[in-house]
Amino acid sequence: MTSNRSTHEFLHSILQGSFSGIMAFKSIRNENDDIVDFEWTFVNQLASKLVGIPSDELVGSRLLDLLPGNKEAGLFDRYKEVVESRKMVTFEQFYPGEEINKWFKISAVHLEDGFTVNFQDISDLKEAMIESESRGKKYQKLFEESLDPIFLADEKFNVMESNDAFVKLFSSEKNLNSSSLDSLFALTSDFEKFHDEIRKSGKVVEFEADLLNQLGKKRPCLINCSHLIGENDKEKFFLGVVRDLTKRKRAERELILAEKISMTGKLSRTIGHEVRNPLTNLGLALDQLKDEVEQYSADVEIYFEIIERNLKRINNLINDLLDSSKPKELKLQKKSLNEVVQSSIALVRDRLNLRNLRLEENYDRHLTECLIDEDQLKVALLNLMINAIEAMEDGKGILSVKSYYEESSIYLEIEDNGIGIPKENLTKLFQPFFTSKKEGTGLGLVTVQNIIQSHRGEIQAESEVGKGTRFTMSFPILVED
User: Per CATH, the architecture of 2-122 is what?
Assistant: First the structure.
């Protein structure tokens, strides 16, 4: 007897000293033998503290009388299932009743015609997990909805994860995760410099390079990237943010161009005024001289013709200079860019056939209409096409014309496989009087640029010696009021 009492007291002390709340219940059944409630048969001190009711009030009382919230929380039904199935269940539960408002980890096991329940207060842990999850979702949302492209790459610079902005700019979602960062760089030397800098210092700050978008077009970009190490020191990866500088660079170019056009216009008007006055005097003097000289030999006639011809040439040059430097007054109408291009090609088709050159056309048939001055735009397109034709070899040349959408603009490309333009001359193409032709005035491309600019568009040139030249023009999409 003494031994049984000692054992009982020993077990009782263990249960009372447990770090978990422990309670035991017996089933209360109705006349149909259905469980309608449970009665406390044992409660340790921690359990009493957790529910906020003294143990002597709990033992002998009914569960739903003192804690009716068990019914609404679904705990009562779970306990019934344990008794009826004789299986143990373990779960996490938020209990909102009787001002308890805590998270518990609960284990219930069948015992005779009742059950025992072991529960731990995990409120602090659960709140920390919820907060961590919320913070993770917040950062994930920032990552996914950032307007700037963001990427996560492994140690070999393979893209592991990226946001929608990155996918939209650089690749298609299907093959993105198999892409390597080096394939995005237009120049291998830029990637090697980027690679060496981040390996050396663990980060790169405002690294500027041309990256290739999903259409293979160069986009000036600013890259910030850090080399990160995971908590276990085994996971190492690169986190980078890319800033597309295309619009900013375009705005800078437009500002510089506007200033250049303004200065060129002022210079042209000054030169025109200062040259045209003495030129007019020379013309008048020549006419007076012809009148005063009644008879003159054929040799003298030749000199008169030389003077007169060159006076006209100088006057025409002044007119071309003034015309190329002033903004065009356009008669804008809704037009199909494809149709204007095709009608311009019709005007040079004889030149193409005469020199046995091939024409390749690739038009986006779904282009919307643009506001276009057809006559002025034809002048610009003819200038570019004739330059392309003259740059190509008879029988081997290919003139390529292509139109397409990209972002908020319509693009037109005119490309040849001619002699190309040296890199040092590319930046001078649109400068007045710069020309590589013997008889050229150097004002043709200035006029072309002026016409495109007047259409609120932009023109750029790419070229490689021996491979050809491509002019790319962009026009704003017509927005209906």
Answer: 2-Layer Sandwich (3.30)
Calculate the alpha carbon distances from 51 to 55, 217, 355 in Å.
10, 67, 97
Characterise 104 by phi-psi region: left (phi > 0), alpha (psi -120 to 50), beta (else): beta
The beta strands (E) that lie in 291-357 are given as 333-335
Lay out the sheet containing 21-29: strands in order across.
Answer: 35-43, 21-29, 114-121, 102-111, 89-95
Could you read off the pLDDT of 129-144 as tens digits, one per residue? 777 776 766 666 776 7
* pTM score: 0.50
Q: Looking at domain 146-244, which CATH architecture does it have? A: 2-Layer Sandwich (3.30)
- pLDDT tens by residue, 333-361: 888 899 999 999 999 999 999 999 999 99
Among 117, 30, 47, which residue's Cα sits nearest to residue 82?
A: 117
Tell me whether strands 358-362 and 398-406 are parallel, antiparallel or unpaired. Answer: parallel
Q: Which secondary structure element, helix H or strand E, spans residue 29, and what is its range?
A: strand 21-29
Angle at alpha carbon of residue 405, lines to 402 and 407, rounded to 5°: 145
Q: Which listed CATH number (3.30.565.10, 3.40.50.300, 3.30.70.1290, 3.40.1010.10) goes with 333-476?
A: 3.30.565.10
Q: In this structure, what DSSP letter does residue 241 have?
A: E
